[in-house]
Every structure is written in C-alpha cells, then in structure tokens.
Amino acid sequence: MDLIIRYDPEADVLAVKLGEGAVADEELLDNDAVVGYDREGRVVYVEVLDASKKGLASALARARALPRLSLRMLLERLEEVHGVELPESIVDALVDWEQDLLFVRFKEPSGPEVGEPLPTRAPAILFTDERTGEVTALEVIGLSELLKELERPRAEPLSNRELVATIMYLAGGRVRGSTRLQKTVFLVQRKLGLGSLSFEPWRYGPWSRELEELLRELEERGLLKVRAETPDLASEFFRESPSRVYEASRELIEEGERAYARLAKAEPLKALQLKRLVAAALAAPLSYLVAYVYVKYPEMTPEKLHTR
Amino acid sequence: MAITFSRHAREKLEKELSKLGVNEEQVREAVSKPDELLYDTATGRYVALKWKEKLAVIYERRGSDIFIVTAIYSSKLENVVQRRRRAGRWI
After folding, report:
1. Which of B62, B22, B54 is nearest to A28 (CA)?
2. pLDDT band at A91 (very low <50, low <70, confident <90, very high)
3. What kind of architecture, by CATH, is found in domain B3-86?
C-alpha cells in the first residue's frame, strides 16, 4: 500500500498509515507517539501528538514538498494534453487514494464557484470564481484513470541500426577501435536496455557478430567509413592499437541525431544516461574500459580469464 | 457543553477504532462520565479514562466546549497511566 501521511493542524496530530491490517491494539509511548498494531503485532499506523512542537513541522514541510512537486508535474501534463490553463500557485491539495480522488485548491473563491467538466476520460471538474472568472479549484474523480491517461507514451525502441547511429552521433561521428565500439554498444545495451544485439564472450570480453555484420552493411551502403589507423603516442602508451577507425557519414549522424531526440523527448533521463555512458566509454583508455567490462560482467569474459 | 471532534479523531474513529468496537458515542460518554480524569501537565490537555473499555480520550477545554484531539484504545492503558503518573506528567 502507499504510505499515507495526514496532518491535522487544529489537533496538531500527524498520522502516518503504514499497513493495511485492522488495528487490534494501541500503545501510547513516552514520546507521545501512539502506535497501532494489528493482530500479528505489525505496526499499522503511528500518530504523533503535538507534532509541531516535536520539530515535525519542518520535516512535514519537506515531506509535503515531494508530492507537491509530482502534483505540479501532473498539472503541467494536464495543461499540455488538454490545453487547459491552470494557475501556478496551489493553496491546498488533497489526494485520497482510497476514494481515488484529487482535489486541488488554487485560490479561495470570493463568492460562488462554477464547475465545468474537463475533456478528460476520468471525470474532472474545473472550478472558477463566478464573479472574477479565475480558476479556483480542480477536482478529479478517478485519479488513477487520469494518471494513466496522462502517462507519456513510451519511446519507440531504438533499432540496432539507430543505436549505432546514435552512438556515432554522440561520439561526434568517429570511434576509434572495434573493441571500443563493441564494448560501448554492449554497455549501452546492458545498462540502458537499448538495442537487441546478441553478444558472446570473446578475446576482449563481449563481442557481437550481429554488430560486425551491421557495421559491414553500413559500410557497404556508404554510411560508414572504416579505415586503418597507425596508433599515436597516447594510444601506444595505453597499449591501444586500433586497427580500425569508424567514421560515420553525415546521413548516419543525422539519423542518430533524430533517434536521440526521439529518446530524449520520451525518456529524458535515459537519454542523458546514454550521453554520459557513451562519453565515458569513448574517453576511457581501452585497457580500463575492457577491465571494467571484465569486472562488471564476468560471464562475458573469456574462459581463460575466469580460471586465472 | 458542546463536544466537537478534530478531523483526526473523527477519521481515526471511522477508519480504525470502529474495527475495535469503539464509536463516537463511547468517546462522548468517556468525556462526560469518565472513570478517571487526569490533567496533562506538559500540554494542558485533559485525559478522560474508561478502564473497562481500555479507552483514553485526550481533549482540550475551549471555554465551555470540549475539543477531542484523539482517542486511544490500549490493552496496556493501566501501565501507561501508572508510568505517566509516576513521572508527574498526568496528575
């Protein structure tokens, strides 16, 4: 069940509902907390008497800030989807999950209020001040249905080609070394669930034949250039000897940019994680990157390394 | 003497204590005819006790009216009362 926190300012009692069970007994503790237990002795709720005097007022304010933040996001989404304009400030809000209700008070009305249904599937009524015409309150009956209705559509999954294109876009169009590219794609797939390439344990950790074939196909179509490069001093120092450098065409980079923008719109956090992961995987010395994958994914290391 | 219930007390009676057979009428009875009435020296509130019902009602006096803060049902009511009396919290 969801944690329910209620504060009654007049009685100065903070009540926290923790479990579903029926209360069988209560205990008044020396610190003025009343604990309700069920038959099995599990805590069902706690109420704190004189809550504000016990320094709970500030804790409560912090606790209330979180739902308020989510509420603000919900209201913004409601504005976005149904084109209604809602006031910025919220005077009070009540969420009752048991009754599946939401009531938001934006402003105290100066007189009678007029209710008008919103074009939502879940019944929702927007109240305005009859005299001033200002929006004063919102009432939603069937909050869970409204939440489903306002849920952002999930991003279309990236195809394997789009995944490679996105990595090339984030890499600035150039990746040095097939091992590095293989490990980067592997990490992105494992950590963020993007792409559906199959990997198997190989000499330097996970390797995907499918990815090799995809790169070859992109090369044949002129979307990717693969050329040999002589190692520079830095890569020699880190014992990197990239035999292959992958350079994406403008077309492939643009395809990656579009795929990334689509992901960022639907799942901004994941897009940010992808950006960071690709940057880290491309900047790390190859030996570090390989070691990281070995440690994190021992099942993908060659058998010889397992036995050492 | 008017008896009013706090929002918390009313909700607690409806949602929790009703499952233990405690109702609004019993709370009113405890306040108007308590087995014992104690004064909370820390908060200035009153505690009306009903031993058989294992019920403690904490309330405030507001002029001639009574404002019920909460009601507590506890099988360990005697222990709590003893402890608080010894500490001089409830007199």
Report:
1. B54
2. confident
3. 2-Layer Sandwich (3.30)
